[in-house]
Every structure is written in C-alpha cells, then in structure tokens.
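Catalogue entry: protein
Contents: sequence, fold tokens
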Amino acid sequence: MTIITGEILPTWGEDYKDFAYVKQFAKAEEIKKWQDMGYTHESFTGAMYGGKNPMPDWVWKIARSLNLNNPGFVFYRMDTNDIMPTHVDHFERYCAVFEIPRSKVKRAVVFLEDWKIGHYFDIANKAVVNYNAGSYVVWDCDEPHFAANIGVEPRYTLQITGT
C-alpha cells in the first residue's frame, strides 16, 4: 500500500465549475452492499465531467507534477448529501484503453478548492479535511476510500488515473 500526499500550487481558475457534469451511477452490487450496511440514499456518487470531453490544458501539468503517465482525467462534483461509501476503484475502462494490468494503476485526487465545512474524504482510515486548494492524495489501485459532502457548497476535485 502506497499513499502519497502533498500540495501543488493551484494555477487554475474556476472554469471547472461550468462543465457539463453528469451524475455517475454505481454498480448494482455495490449499491446492494451499501444498503445492507445501512445507507438509505436514493442514489450514490457525485457528478462527473471526463471521458472524451475537452480538458483544460492545466490538467496535463498536474499529471506531470504527480509523475503520472498515461493520464486520464475526470472532474468530480459532489453536491449536498452526495456520498460515495467505502469502495475500491475498478479501472476497467482505463486498463482496457491503455492495455495495462490493473496492478500498475494509480489514482490521484486533487482538491480544487480550499476545504469547506461538510466536505470529507477518507483513505486508509484517515480523514482528509482542512485541506488547501492544490492538496492531493495519490494511492495504489486496491486502496479502499470514501467521500461525502454533507455541507451546503459543492465539493470539486480532479481525479487523475495513471501509471
């Protein structure tokens, strides 16, 4: 298990707030597991902007500064009461596109704004709160983690998948 944390200088504006985010849906077996644990939400996860959508140029600089090769980018917005219970990322599409084994994949989350009350991220049983814009966490493919927004303002992050 490798988890790296740090900060980069935020050199971005707020263009990410205007992207056409689309709600992501979890797999049925994950939803069942979370409901069995006692979660009663109608839906899980936040909204994403990624895939084949155009990306701002500054995301490439961030990937290079985190030493992530073959980067894939997704902007993630969690609105009030959005939660993503404990899970391990799948990386199925990423591994297929880049023809690499899952074991070589890493995930980074870059916090695009300073922490706000109610914004929560947890990895390796450690809460990540009180962060600054530009703070990041990078982890190996099998690390369980979760996120939530029980605050009143959206929570914006940039997810970078790479090797």
About this structure: The first helix runs from residue 28 to 36. The chain has a mean pLDDT of 93. Helices lie at 28-36, 58-65, 92-98. Residues 3-162 form a domain with the Jelly Rolls fold (CATH 2.60.120.10).
